[in-house]
User: Which sequence fits this backbone?
């Protein structure tokens, strides 16, 4: 399940990520950091953190769960207008 949440000022976003996405981001991290440092004005999204949250049954009363998310910046805010018909 994908979940996105933007900060009130629309500068930052939290996005849920899968285990595979987490592994991929860790794989490209050295090259990504090198590119960001060499190109400070790049339009690539800036990743500020990657977190795994575990919730125990004791705290929720439901089955134990785990989720991963990353905190990133929004370079461009795009508004999508949906039209019917």
Assistant:
């Amino acid at each position: 399940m994908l979940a996105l949440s933007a900060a009130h000022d629309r500068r930052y976003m939290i996005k849920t990520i899968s285990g595979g996405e987490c592994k991929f981001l860790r794989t490209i991290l050295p090259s990504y950091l090198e590119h960001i440092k060499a190109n400070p004005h790049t339009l690539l999204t800036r990743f500020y953190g990657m977190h795994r949250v575990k919730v125990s049954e004791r705290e929720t009363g439901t089955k134990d769960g785990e989720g991963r998310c990353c905190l990133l910046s929004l370079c461009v805010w795009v508004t999508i207008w949906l039209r019917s018909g």
User: Anything to note?
Assistant: The chain has one domain: 4-73. DSSP finds two helices and four strands in the chain.
